[in-house]
Design a protein that fits this description.
By secondary structure, the chain is of the alpha+beta class. The protein is built from five helices and eleven strands, in the order H-E-H-E-H-E-E-H-H-E-E-E-E-E-E-E. The termini are far apart.
């Protein structure tokens, strides 16, 4: 007969290995991935912006990235009024500057996942910022999955008698915590019917008072610029923001937002992005994109 203490010593290393994510993967309930959000603040009146506009176009074709163009208005006084710019985009850029502690705004500026900003024409720096956010997302997913698997394993083993059952409180305490550097992960799913669009947000402990943004996008717009610093050039812009508004507040619990089709009628767009962002203009914690949704109004 094997003593309870010997059996316990044999069981705990296996149990803890699974709890810490180094054992075999447990099936089911895997967390979905999410794209990195890349926002370019640009202007038709900015001579240093075309390289950043071209980079954004390449990023817009990349899987795992939601790349959007936000033309701003403060260059309009210098010889050419940007035909795509809006004050809402300018306010968003200024809000980022305040959140990040910057003294002002500039173009071309790229903000990656609400976490870091870089000069939009410096492709290597942009790529590094995207890679860093991908690594953060992957690490947060691994930690969150380890916690899910640990809880499931403990629940499954609770039916066992004796030494393994006695180990459960210890095993639960060993469940890996979410790293301090990791942002919460919010799953975002978009679906639509002829009458409505549904935005389903999963639960994410640690997320509080995040803003849910809906962004209507035009996938490609070419503009011939007859005046200003880019006079004589035709520039193509990608995923241009046509409308951006807050549609809800997310507090960490699962929720569904339903938007009537009638509220979106007339907006020029062929794609929609939903972005969940801490404190309005902080780190992105969830995002999804759908191209050519059913309610797209042909114009």
């Amino acid at each position: 007969m094997v003593s309870p203490m010997i059996s316990l010593r044999r069981t705990l290393p296996i149990l803890f290995a699974v709890l810490l994510g180094s054992g075999a993967a447990l099936a089911g309930n895997s967390l979905p991935t999410r794209p990195v959000v890349v926002e370019l603040f640009t202007s038709q009146g900015c001579s240093s912006c075309p390289p950043a506009d071209a980079l954004l176009g390449r990023l817009a074709q990349r899987p795992g990235v939601i790349a959007i163009t936000l033309p701003i208005t403060y260059w309009d006084m210098l010889g050419w009024k940007d035909t795509l710019a809006s004050e809402a985009n300018t306010r968003r850029q200024k809000s980022y500057a305040a959140a990040m502690g910057h003294g002002g705004v500039y173009t071309p500026q790229i903000v990656v996942d609400g976490a870091v900003d870089v000069v939009g024409s410096r492709a290597a720096n942009v790529e590094m910022a995207i890679a860093q956010r991908r690594a953060m997302i992957a690490g947060a997913q691994a930690a969150a999955q380890a916690r899910i698997d640990a809880r499931r394993y403990v629940a499954d083993q609770a039916r066992l008698p004796g030494d393994v059952a006695a180990a459960m409180p210890v095993a639960a305490a060993m469940s890996p915590a979410m790293p301090a550097w990791a942002d919460p992960l919010v799953s975002v799913a978009l679906s639509q019917s002829p009458q409505e669009m549904h935005v389903d947000l999963g639960a994410a402990p640690g997320a509080h008072d995040a803003t849910v943004w809906m962004v209507h996008l035009r996938s490609q717009v070419s503009v011939a610029i007859p005046a200003g610093e880019n006079e004589g050039h035709t520039i193509t812009y990608h995923n241009v923001v046509g409308d951006l508004k807050a549609i809800g507040v997310y507090k960490g619990r699962a929720m569904t937002l339903t938007l009537p089709r009638a509220a979106m009628a007339g907006l020029p767009h062929d794609g929609v992005a939903v972005i969940v962002q801490q404190n309005g203009y902080g780190h992105v914690i969830g995002a999804a994109y759908v191209s050519r949704p059913d309610y797209y109004a042909q114009q």
